[in-house]
Design brief:
7 strands, alpha/beta
Length: 275
């Protein structure tokens, strides 16, 4: 298990106030990393994440920042480096979405999604990578994308596009940073049991019930079930993995047609255990 040990390393996690970001931050802390926790100024839950991290015996630094202000991210990264020292791991987790048909998407809505889901990922990764190179750190940059970056979903054209672009960006950065020993990868979750803001113009409970039937494993992921992929990519265990993604979707992308629900139940052909 020493290959997964992150003792002595510092990780920055965006969108750390709740949900998936909180689970990922806690997993890194449990593996031995100290944390820089980033979310919107005044975001409820950020101090709660810090308390959970500190309960593991690790240090938690709170650095609120509006990631949509991409023009500020270089200075933000510089301030973090000055405050906590070298960063070894960057987890670009923060993201936003809006449920809108493509012909309802305004320029403002498009820009908001792109600023947080793509622009912030690029400009924060750019500056943090600069520090990693200068500090001689063989760092890890991990971006939480989505299965929506690989297949489309109605009502989310801007979100889908932002996640697909983040997937391509992951490969570009991996190629350019490889000579410095810095790996760049993505985690593409499917549906995760996390708080979802906003109004839904349809029966949300019926939609979620139907979606669960579409998932081969039959349920949404718990936030902590993305932690294994993160720890592999963030640690020495994944030191030769770069420019790729780990999909954590319960089998959705593997199943082009949910046919099993219409087939007879699977039964083993082996003799029963009791003879």
């Amino acid at each position: 298990m020493h290959r997964f040990d992150l003792t002595g390393r510092t990780a920055l996690v965006t969108g750390a106030a709740r949900g998936l970001g909180r689970a990922l931050a806690l997993a890194l802390a449990e593996a031995g990393a100290d944390l820089v926790l980033v979310d919107l100024p005044g975001a409820p839950g950020l101090t709660g994440t810090a308390e959970l991290v500190r309960a593991t015996g690790r240090t938690a630094h709170l650095h609120p920042q509006d990631l949509a202000r991409t023009e500020d991210l270089a200075d933000f990264a510089d301030r973090v480096r000055e405050a906590v020292g070298p960063l070894h791991i960057l987890v670009n987790n923060a993201g936003v979405a809006a449920l809108e048909r493509f012909n309802e998407i305004t320029a403002a809505s498009w820009a908001r999604i792109m600023r947080v889901n793509l622009d912030a990922v690029f400009f924060l990764s750019q500056r943090v990578a600069e520090h990693m190179v200068r500090d001689g750190v063989a760092g890890r940059i991990i971006t939480v994308t989505s299965k929506n970056g690989l297949v489309a979903e109605a009502g989310l054209a801007h979100y889908n596009a932002s996640k697909a672009a983040a997937e391509s960006l992951t490969q570009s950065l991996a190629v350019e940073l490889a000579p410095h020993g810095i790996t760049v990868n993505a985690i593409a979750p499917g549906m995760v049991e996390t708080p979802i803001d906003g109004e839904f113009p349809f029966d949300r409970e019926a939609f979620e019930a139907a979606y669960r039937e579409r998932i081969p494993l039959g349920r949404y992921a718990r936030p902590d079930e993305c932690a294994g992929a993160l720890l592999l990519l963030a640690s020495d265990a994944g030191s030769y993995i770069t420019g790729t993604r780990i999909v954590v979707d319960g089998g959705v992308l593997a199943d082009q047609m949910p046919r099993t629900r219409f087939m007879p139940p699977y039964r083993s052909s082996l003799p029963s255990a009791d003879g």
